Amino acid sequence: MSQSILEPEGTAHLTQAQVAQFVNDGFVIVPGLVDPDRVHAGLKELKNKTGIVPDESKTWPKDKNGMHVTQEGIAIDRTLCISPKLKSIVRELAGPAITNEPGLSPILRFPQPGPKRFEPGGAHIDGTRQGNGLTVYPTHFLLLVMAYLTDTDAHDGAFTVWPGSPRQVFSWAYTNNIDLGEKWRTTGSTGAPDIQLNDPTPVVARAGDVAICHYLMVHAASANRGDHVRVGLHGWLKADPEYQYVPKTGSPQRDWTPLDWILRTDNLH
Ligand SMILES: O=C(O)CCC(=O)C(=O)O
Question: Is residue 7 one of the residues assigned to a domain?
Fold first, then answer.
């Protein structure tokens, strides 16, 4: 039988502080989750398939200055950088049905001229209902992952998050019975709702560090004013096809996942 608890607990691979960060901020950055061999293998695969070396400007395509290049153009082995520890951690955060298929795909941000400062792009939430907008409870994917293969400072095209936004978006939509799908855009994402959010924060981290976010994270790309290509591996982590999320009710129980905590309703008015 399950038991009520007052604070989320640590998991096999995450400390209580890391779990608390995920629950409070909607994301956690796990250092070194892609080990150096996998980082190396990912960059080698990128070079083999595209010729691109992040810190050698002569290898960058001339027409890509400042551009955000996504997986469509780059057919690399998407499973290369997924470590057993990453597989375990995503299950600890969102439940045992989560899979890492079909893997993570590259999102590159190429340097562009301009002042070396943090400059976030358009805030959005990715679509949680395939091809059809955004849902309050997860139907398409449960976690958004961004793994860095290059060291990334704030002005290097850092992945950008709005800390706390998953809980804020959920509370607002749940309490007011809002259809989040209404702001769906044909680009595959949803504009951030017009509610008071915290300031955007660049994910400043090293190659191999991984940011794992709740599916309702308001996030963005940012300008790369640095001297190397920002190589990120991005993925929407889904569950087994037969899985259906069951909304939790009442006070948090020991068997709730950290993702469940963000979707608690017992303390909403
Ligand atoms: O490449 C990035 O830093 C941001 C990617 C993004 O906005 C997205 O995955 O929807």
Answer: no
Range of the domain at 112: 16-262
pLDDT in tens, 18-42: 999 999 999 999 999 999 999 999 9
Starting at the edge strand found earlier in the chain, the sheet holding 160-161 runs: 189-191, 124-126, 219-220, 160-161, 201-202
Whether residue 101 is contained in a domain is answered as yes
CATH of the domain at 211: 2.60.120.620
The string of pLDDT tens digits covering residues 74-123 is: 778 888 899 999 999 999 999 999 998 888 888 999 999 999 999 999 89
pLDDT tens, position by position, 211-251? 999 999 999 999 999 999 999 999 989 888 899 999 999 99
CB of 233 closer than 6 angstroms to any ligand 1 atom: no
Residue tagged 């139907």 (tokens): 139
Nearest atom in ligand 1 to the alpha carbon of residue 220 is 7
Question: What's the 170 CA to ligand 1 centre distance in angstroms?
Answer: 21
Give the Cα-Cα-Cα angle 27, 117, 17 (nearest 5 degrees). 20
Q: How far is the CA of 255 from the centre of ligand 1 (A)?
A: 31
Closest CA to 201 of 6, 29, 8, 16: 29
DSSP result, 109-169: E---SS-SS--B---EEE-SSTTS---SS-SS-SEEEEEESS-B-TTBT--EE-TTHHHHH
Q: How much distance in Å is there from the Cα of 159 to the middle of ligand 1?
A: 6
* Angstrom distance (rounded) from CA 17 to CA 134: 29
| Residue having the nearest C-alpha atom to atom 1 of ligand 1 | 221
Count of domains forming the chain: 1
